């Protein structure tokens, strides 16, 4: 969340940020509640100070003050609850270089890389290729779990493992710490990441009996890993690469991308997370983007880089890039990676600090970026398909897959 002092001093900046991100928050009410809270706290503190001044023989006066405090405390608790609800939905402030826009149609293409393949035959969609090669089974998954699930089989399963191992090898060599995190989170930890408020909560699966959220990305448990901790400045930046199964309702997407495995309820994902000093976070963000591009270039998949506009940015991010891979059957680019700079937005909620110069405590900045999900598999199947129905495997993956091509059975 944002620092309440910042909101007090910059109410118009906060209001503008809410408007840019299309998040409805009554900032004036928030400030009114904050003022009431501080007034009540001041009143309680004044009463306690007066109580401490009383002598041993002034018992009746002490009782009156104690009762006065008891009457104030419920009102204070009520106001604090309302204030915290409002604070939790205030979005992060977008950086100045984030393009203005209402939705993804106004995102800005920064660059395009790679050669778009040309076919001397009609290219097939990844779901058809997967079915023909017996590596993706959507029909049986629907029988078992319903829509938007899939079995990844045979060479398909090995291809996912290859992508993950490939990414981990590269990132571990760059100093990232490998982690397999929990895929369930306590409510307070999940809420601390900033992805589980308002409409965002509809995207998550919640186990009511256990009061646990299923994670939507490994970023969430990785960021929360250092909750309520103070890191050492010499250990920053602290970089992680995590792998987990992820769960999303895909709320509001019904009727979209129903074919294939582009938009599903369960998938595996390798995610990068960085904890950095505030002055280094923009540099770390560019590093994460460069790594994502490096992975795509090594796979020889054509892609474009997008600067995400304010209306498509999400609550925690101050800036976000997407990488979109070319899909021949759709004749357009589709998202495979994203990377966000969340500044100290998550760190404040989760109480993650570092001890800096002069022993001063500061909040860290948190960043995240996709290494791989199952979506690059879609891009590989479509971009490297052959006329005979086979699919060539990118050369860089051969040592991980043990095969160079997937042939029809």
Defining key terms:
alpha+beta; single chain; Helix Hairpins; eight-stranded mixed beta sheet; 2 domains; 13 helices; three-stranded antiparallel beta sheet; BirA Bifunctional Protein, domain 2; about 400 residues; about 40% helix
- Overall body shape: elongated
Structural class: alpha+beta
- What percent strand? 15-25%
The number of domains is 2
Low-confidence stretches: none
What does this molecule look like?
By secondary structure, this protein is of the alpha+beta class. The protein has two domains: 4-89, Serine-tRNA synthetase, tRNA binding domain (Helix Hairpins, Orthogonal Bundle); 104-406, 2-Layer Sandwich (BirA Bifunctional Protein, domain 2), CATH 3.30.930. It has helices spanning 4-9, 11-20, 27-53, 59-89, 126-132, 138-145, 154-173, 187-192, 219-224, 281-299, 345-350, 375-383, 398-401, and strands at 108-113, 136-137, 151-152, 177-179, 184-186, 206-207, 212-214, 229-232, 238-247, 266-276, 303-307, 319-327, 332-341, 352-355, 361-363, 365-372, 391-392, 405-406. The strands form five sheets. The protein has an eight-stranded mixed sheet with strand order 1-11-12-13-16-10-9-4. The chain has a three-stranded antiparallel sheet with strand order 5-7-6. A hairpin with a 4-residue loop joins strand 6 and strand 7 (212-214). Helix 3 (27-53) packs antiparallel against helix 4 and helix 5 (126-132) packs across helix 12 (375-383). The chain is elongated. The termini are far apart. The relative contact order is 0.15.
Give the structure's gist in a few sentences:
The protein is α+β, with helices and mostly antiparallel strands. It has helices at residues 4-9, 11-20, 27-53, 59-89, 126-132, 138-145, 154-173, 187-192, 219-224, 281-299, 345-350, 375-383, 398-401; strands spanning 108-113, 136-137, 151-152, 177-179, 184-186, 206-207, 212-214, 229-232, 238-247, 266-276, 303-307, 319-327, 332-341, 352-355, 361-363, 365-372, 391-392, 405-406. A hairpin with a 5-residue loop joins strand 14 and strand 15.
């Amino acid at each position: 969340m944002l620092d309440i002092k910042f909101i007090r001093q910059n109410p118009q900046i906060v209001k503008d940020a809410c408007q840019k991100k299309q998040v409805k928050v009554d900032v004036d009410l928030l400030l009114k509640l904050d003022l009431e809270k501080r007034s009540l706290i001041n009143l309680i503190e004044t009463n306690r100070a007066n109580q401490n001044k009383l002598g041993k023989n002034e018992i009746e006066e002490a009782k009156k003050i104690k009762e006065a405090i008891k009457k104030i405390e419920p009102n204070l608790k009520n106001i604090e609850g309302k204030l915290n609800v409002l604070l939790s939905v205030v979005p992060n402030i977008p950086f100045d270089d984030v393009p203005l826009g209402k939705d993804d149609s106004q995102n800005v293409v920064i660059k395009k890389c790679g050669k778009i393949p040309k076919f001397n035959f009609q290219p097939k969609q990844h779901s058809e290729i997967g079915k023909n090669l017996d590596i993706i089974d959507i029909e049986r998954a629907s029988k078992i779990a319903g829509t938007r699930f899939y079995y990844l089989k045979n060479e398909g399963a090995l291809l996912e493992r290859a992508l993950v191992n490939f990414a981990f090898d590269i990132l571990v060599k760059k100093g990232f710490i490998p982690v397999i995190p929990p895929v369930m989170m306590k409510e307070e930890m999940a809420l601390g990441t900033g992805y589980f408020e308002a409409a965002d909560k509809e995207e998550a699966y919640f186990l009511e009996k256990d009061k646990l959220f299923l994670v939507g990305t490994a970023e969430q448990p990785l960021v929360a890993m250092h909750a309520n901790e103070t890191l050492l400045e010499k250990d920053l930046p602290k970089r992680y690469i995590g792998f987990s199964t992820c769960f999303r309702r895909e709320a509001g997407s019904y009727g979209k991308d129903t074919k294939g495995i582009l938009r599903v309820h369960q998938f595996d994902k390798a995610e990068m997370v960085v904890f950095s000093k505030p002055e280094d976070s923009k540099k770390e963000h560019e590093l994460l983007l460069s790594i994502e591009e490096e992975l795509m270039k090594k796979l020889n998949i054509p892609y474009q880089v997008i600067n995400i506009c304010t209306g498509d940015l999400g609550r925690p991010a101050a800036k976000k890039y997407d990488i979109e891979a070319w899909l021949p059957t759709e004749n357009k680019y589709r998202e495979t990676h994203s990377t966000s700079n969340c500044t100290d937005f998550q760190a404040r909620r989760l109480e993650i600090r570092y001890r800096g110069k002069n022993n001063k405590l500061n909040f860290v900045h948190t960043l995240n970026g996709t290494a791989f999900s199952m979506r690059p598999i879609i891009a590989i199947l479509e971009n490297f398909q052959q006329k005979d129905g086979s699919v060539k495997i990118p050369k860089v993956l051969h040592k991980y897959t043990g095969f160079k091509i997937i042939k029809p059975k």
